[in-house]
Structure formats: structure tokens, C-alpha cells
Amino acid sequence: QGAREHGDLTGGLKSVADQLDGVLAKLGLEAFGAVGDPFDPTLHEAVTHGQSEDVEAPTCTQIMRRGYRLGERLLRPALVGVSDPA
Questions:
Q1: Whole-structure pTM value
Q2: Which of 31, 43, 46, 69 qualifies as a cystine partner to 82, CB 3.0-4.6 A?
């Protein structure tokens, strides 16, 4: 996912990555973890913690590593930075 976000996937490599993503999605693999998600300790592992006037509840404000689940089964929690209301 990191190479895709940095624009490093191009040409044939991008095509293969897109096909692989499609196959994994059909099998039920789902990536999660985005800035702005409500913090859920059952899905997210907080590695930094702070306060912000911009949030009203504990919120993921930084994503260090996306998480993955297969159907209802958690495969890997997302590593996140969390902000609490100030």
C-alpha cells in the first residue's frame, strides 16, 4: 500500500498490483485505517496519543500501518496515532 500512496507503482507493476487487490477483495480481505476514523481499541493499536481541539471523541489522526480483516476476523490491527478532545 505504501508504494501505491507514494506513486511508485507504474506500468506493468501497477497492473499486477491492481489485479491482486481485486482478487483479495473478492476473497473478503479488507484494508482499514484512515485519518478521521473513530478510535476503536478492538481494531486499532494506539502508538501515539495526544489532544486536539479539532476532535470531539477519540479519533485516529495518524496512520502508521493499515490494518486488515477477512470477513469478521481481524488479521492485523491498524497502528494509529490517537487524539482525544482537548
A1: 0.74
A2: 46
